[in-house]
Amino acid sequence: MQRNIHWMAPAMGTVKINIDGAFRASTGTAGIGVLCRNNKGDFLGSLRKTIQSDSPFMSECIALKEALLHRGKFLGSPVVIETDCKYCIS
User: Fold this and answer.
1) Strands 15-24 and 79-82, bridge-based pairing
2) In which domain, by residue range, is 19 found?
3) What is the total count of domains within the chain?
4) Considering the domain boundaries, does residue 58 fall inside one?
């Protein structure tokens, strides 16, 4: 089943940070990504890292931590963080 997923812009003046993590059980490593854009979709910054992790959930949580650490770069602007990991934010 193929899904079409489209980026949805945040409110005017808001920065949107999308995060993701991918885990490889055989090596205990994961890749995480953080992508920041404004409401027009303009690129504001990104981060990618290879990390040690125990699970896909932990990989997503570490990506969230990185996003929270880097949101200070956007002082004065509201920030929305989006992830596909429901348990990471609930």
Assistant:
1) parallel
2) 15-83
3) 1
4) yes
